[in-house]
Amino acid sequence: MGLKNLDTPSLILDRKVLEANTRRMTSRLEDRGVRFRPHMKTAKSIDVARMAIAGNFGGVMVSTLKEAEYLADNGISDITYGVTVLPDKLPRIAALVKRGIKIGVILDQVAFAREISRQAVNLGIVLDVLIELDSGEKRAGVFAESPELLEIGRALAELPGTRLEGVLTHAGHSYQSRTIEDIRRVAEEERMVAVTAATRLRAIGLPVPVVSVGSTPTATHGVNFDGLTEVRCGVYMFGDVMQSEIHSCEPSDIALSVLATVIGHRPQFNTALIDAGALALSKDRSTAAPGLAEDIGFGMVMDMSCRQRIPGVTVGHVYQEHGLLVSEGPFPYHLLPVGSKVRVLPNHACMTAAMYDHYYVVAGDNDQHIVSWPRINGW
Amino acid sequence: MGLKNLDTPSLILDRKVLEANTRRMTSRLEDRGVRFRPHMKTAKSIDVARMAIAGNFGGVMVSTLKEAEYLADNGISDITYGVTVLPDKLPRIAALVKRGIKIGVILDQVAFAREISRQAVNLGIVLDVLIELDSGEKRAGVFAESPELLEIGRALAELPGTRLEGVLTHAGHSYQSRTIEDIRRVAEEERMVAVTAATRLRAIGLPVPVVSVGSTPTATHGVNFDGLTEVRCGVYMFGDVMQSEIHSCEPSDIALSVLATVIGHRPQFNTALIDAGALALSKDRSTAAPGLAEDIGFGMVMDMSCRQRIPGVTVGHVYQEHGLLVSEGPFPYHLLPVGSKVRVLPNHACMTAAMYDHYYVVAGDNDQHIVSWPRINGW
């Protein structure tokens, strides 16, 4: 069964590109002497996780407890949960800890530290906690120079039920970068914030075994990793058009695409339709951000081999199950006959992948042995 | 277990509002003498389907074959599949037909009619086909006045394996309306296109038992239903902020919301964080369309009872698992303490619901008997 026999829309993962992406990041960070903790928020798949941890120490990051539970069920035993831990979530976390899974959680408020401590004691666990730092994204975290940092550090070290494991930051604002030089500047900010916070905590006698940073752009282009113990990132595995436009990857490094069928021609309007719409592609419009090379609409339209772009054609609009292909010049209907298939590269791999419960994994164009890898969604 | 004990993010469905919405549309269309075929693309739930067909003839519309298979497995036996049927999909459709399910499919190209005929014969079925019409949306369909209409009609009537069931159109451009008068104008266009096409087909001796139209705005406000046999719509069940802004429903008719927890305050930036981001809310930005009353960002932020809006606060930005609450004036932190819960009304119910595999169904604020209804996703 080849690509042309798959039902559409389907989510396609190119195994060779995926392997090259995971190997490249693993080897880059190994060369720089930092542990690499791949983030599973994009892939949410044990098969991809195994590939990502190969050659690394085996730990992963997750964005939901469901990911943590799923990966733990499938043999991953060192997991950092990357969203401010709510006291309500402690019972699920304690269940994992009691199964022998090492779980790290993050927080940025002393009130939560106290609540977590109380709940952890009630549940009979000691929880490893990292203090989340704001390295310029302005989303979550405390500032490295703030009094709150030391207050939270002392609370975690002194309270029962918690153990201060270290500090962690994510320079999500690296996505606003437009050049590699920009990314390198953000990477150095991210590093400096983490190292400064660790130094301040150590200066008051607290142990800080983990100093963790990461985002795909900064992990890809960061130059200096001094003082860091760990790097994390996730979308590098698959890449996407946004990441290629901000120079985190080459267009040929994009491993994820949506297979769709051309279901209609409308020459009166210079358009065509595919059977991949808002649910198959997501409504992510990351490439519409200012300063990027090109706004690709709702996805970049490639031929079925995914080697050639269909010139001038973009997904200009999406309906729930229809994608409207538009063209600035005369529509190249001869390249896209009704019934033919295309591959659509996503704006943002995390959002597009989340619309599917499995990947079709292909090795090359004429792969007759396509396999299906499950993925999970939800919380 | 009440709302305050649910894990967040969760998808909440208000049973009373849902029941009122389904009863209102059923009774409106019954009064106008047309059959009502609820569209299950928004809800994708057998429990909601049963409520929607109550008082109607029992048929539904679906947007994916997975919906058709799921609903058939749960006792629905009359289903129209509302995306151009691809010949590749015939085996799955034939399996349903052979189980005794009445399946209607749509197409707008004579080449597909011939392919469908060939495949249907091979599979040993006779398939009911509706001709899709373009009533002004410019997405799919043939024009009512076009020669293609008659060509497709003749092909479907004459070829083996197909039966011409009628004509169908969806005035999706009603979503561009800004007043009830606009919607009524679109509804009349939608009706006229369907009736014109039916008249032309009948004039050449072809039977047209089904003349079907529908969209939530036109079904809600259409005045004249003469010549129509069937109306279809789906988002009316749940409503959403976009529908309320184009006057398809009142804000109090919105049955769907996302329950989220406030996970951080950032007074330095006049912001707060909730644990519902791009995956929990979707990236739909329908209310950003020109001419609408208000752009609500990624969702309208309500208190936990969903009765009061948090004044001045919107979801200004979404990250994968974080929503950034912003405020034009000073942020009302006293209304949203860290750890408190909010309900977020969606821009677009179809997109937000698609991020979840179940609903928590509540009857009133202090419901201690919240039940879970499964829903499906995918293709």
UniProtKB/TrEMBL annotation, chains A, B:
A Pfam family matched in the record: D-ser_dehydrat
Boundaries of every D-serine dehydratase-like domain copy: 255-363
Stored SUPFAM superfamilies: PLP-binding barrel
Presence of the UniProt keyword Glycosyltransferase in the record: no
GO-annotated biological processes: D-serine catabolic process
Keyword Protein biosynthesis: no
GO molecular function: D-serine ammonia-lyase activity
Keywords assigned by UniProt, alphabetized: Lyase
Record-linked InterPro entries: Ala_racemase_N, D-amino_acid_metab_enzyme, D-ser_dehydrat-like_dom, D-ser_dehydrat-like_sf, PLP-binding_barrel
Family: Belongs to the DSD1 family.
Protein's UniProt name: D-serine dehydratase-like domain-containing protein
Organism expressing this protein natively: Ciceribacter ferrooxidans
Lineage summary: Bacteria, Pseudomonadati, Pseudomonadota, Alphaproteobacteria, Hyphomicrobiales
